[in-house]
Amino acid sequence: MISAARKPESMSNVEKMPPIVEDLRFHSPEQLAEVRLLLGAGVVGRPDVRRPGFFELDGARSVYYIFRYPAGHKVLLIAAWERDTDPVAELIACNCTAA
């Protein structure tokens, strides 16, 4: 017979693995490291409303455009641009909707 007062099994501490970042272009090692750091810290980013699974991550000096696979922990780094030197970056980062 199965005991009704069975003790719950203890959960072991399993450390969450950081996401695997795959570079689709030739980004610098510093940019890849920053994306890994942001994702490891739990930054979700701004979702792209037109493309499911695509996000913008705000880094210290750059903005990163990534794709997160729905299943698993793999992320594709698609593009990166610097905020200070790219005049279009401010327009892209703006969450304004067109009338």
State Rg.
19 Å
- Low-confidence blocks of residues: none
* Overall 3D form: globular
CATH topology: YaeB-like fold
Which series of helices and strands comes N to C?
EHEEEEH
Q: Could you say how many structural domains there are in total? A: 1
| Mean of pLDDT | 79
Strand content: 25-35%
Distance between the termini: 68 Å
- Order the strands across the largest sheet as they lie in space: 1-5-4-3-2
What does the main sheet amount to? Answer: 5 strands, mixed
Total of helices: 2
CATH architecture: 2-Layer Sandwich
The proportion of residues forming helix, as a percent range, comes to: 10-25%
- Structural class from helices and strands? alpha+beta
- The overall strand count is 5
Q: What's the CATH first level?
A: Alpha Beta
Describe this structure in words.
The protein has about 100 residues and is of the alpha+beta class. It has a single domain (about 20-95), classed as 2-Layer Sandwich (YaeB-like fold), CATH 3.30.2310. It has two helices and five strands; from the N terminus they run βαββββα. The chain has helices spanning about 30-40, 85-95; strands at about 20-25, 45, 55-60, 60-70, 75-80. The protein has a five-stranded mixed β-sheet with strand order 1-5-4-3-2, covered by helices on one side. β3 (about 55-60) and β4 form a beta hairpin. The longest helix is centred in the middle third of the chain and has 12 residues, at about 30-40. The chain is globular.
